[in-house]
Amino acid sequence: xERKSPSLFLALTxxxxxxxxxxxxxxTYGDDTLSFxxxxxxxxxxxxxxxxxxxxxxxxQDLMQGATDNxxxxxxxLLVLLLIGALAGSWLLSGIVPAMIYYGLKVLSPExxxxxxxxxxxxxSIATGSSWGTIATVGIALLGIGKAMNFNEGxxxxxxxxGAYFGDKMSPLSDTTNLAPAVSNTDLISHIKYMTxxxxxxxxxxxxxxxxxxLFHDGAGVVSDVGxxxxxxxxxFNISPALFLVPITVVILILKKIPAAPSLAIGALxxxxxxxxxQGDIIASLIADGTFQNPFSVVVTTLGQGLSIQSSDPxxxxxxxxxxxxxxxNTIWLIICAMIFGGVMDRSGCLNKIxxxxxxxxxxxxxxxxxxxxxxxxxxxxxxxQYLAIVVPGKMYEKAYAENKLHPVNLSxxxxxxxxxxxxxxxxxxxxxxxxxxxxxxxxxxxxxxxFCLISPIMTMVxxxxxxxxxxxxxxxx
Length: 478
Description:
By secondary structure, this protein is mainly α. The chain folds into two domains: 8-75 and 329-466, no CATH class; 78-326, no CATH class. Helices cover 74% and strands 1% of the residues. It has helices at 8-29, 37-55, 60-93, 96-107, 113-128, 131-148, 153-170, 175-184, 188-215, 222-236, 245-255, 260-278, 280-288, 295-304, 314-319, 329-347, 350-359, 365-382, 386-403, 408-420, 430-439, 443-446, 451-466; strands at residues 307-308, 321-322. A two-stranded antiparallel sheet has the order 1-2.
């Protein structure tokens, strides 16, 4: 039977149901929605999209194939997540994360911590081209430092993510920074130069906000608490600057364009090696008190199930805990369910219908850029993947930009301003789910403080609407 296109009402129905059920989840479970409830809701919304697909004569096999293809696309990210869990465990056992916290507390002041955290993550992310790698390494340590300074964990995560996604967006090594100009038919250098028009003001405003929050932060007792915290760390771990050789090695591997999976695997294994070199007493005590049977069980359990180092200090006990690969399973479950939803939405024709309706709104320069931004955000919400949020709108609107005499850099910049940075704000998107799992902070808790990610789409609209430095294929006639 010939396929039919669903009506716009039917196409929007699965998304409307998803949003309603997700709101019910937040109301019922709070920041614990990652555990299981969001996964069930995504599968329910996928089921609604599948029913609509059957009404439009899409076979069940085709719907399943769409879900399968989407899951295949997410497999590399799932592997990276497992390795991030292993790395977190090994870097705790080796003393790398405690060393980062120890030296960070000595160097960073509470007043400027948020600004410093944002800048540090931006620099590392520009150097490596990876927001995920930045957050999984220095981001975890900065979260611990911020908690020790009595900052709200959502605010700390917001500073970390803002810096990491600024660097990811501006780095010539980033996959999304290369993908956006590729699908827009422009070159990388022109793309990065044109992005500075919106990205630099966005990060400057972000840093000003974090500076003001830091200056008014209640730091009473923080200095003395920090001193006591560092004393506890020294009692538990052998802290040495040599421990930083491991994260430096990981950064160098990424700079050498070694893929994320082997780089993180090497980082996790080096963490275990350094644990036996520097933290032999801890390993011996864990075996002696019956926590582990032998050194082999220490290694396997730390990588797979995680580790908790006991401390009389409640805050330090919370910081010295890593969940290993096992701690990433809920996030992986969420991503799989999100990919199923996105795949079924695509094969059922719902995404095409909504995309076509959005395209009809693009009648001029400002509305075209606004529709592009809206489409990228929409793809992050429905397809649950930032790459699709760049590729699909990029191909949809490429011709429309040419017809409006707009240079392709206008398109590539908009895709990054709205697609790359908003992916981390969606709980069921691969980016949002990953960062919530890695940092242990729910997306609903941190997204209000990801100021750079929130400001970027607004900035691209402001710049376009006032006509500031809009690049044309040919200069318009006066």
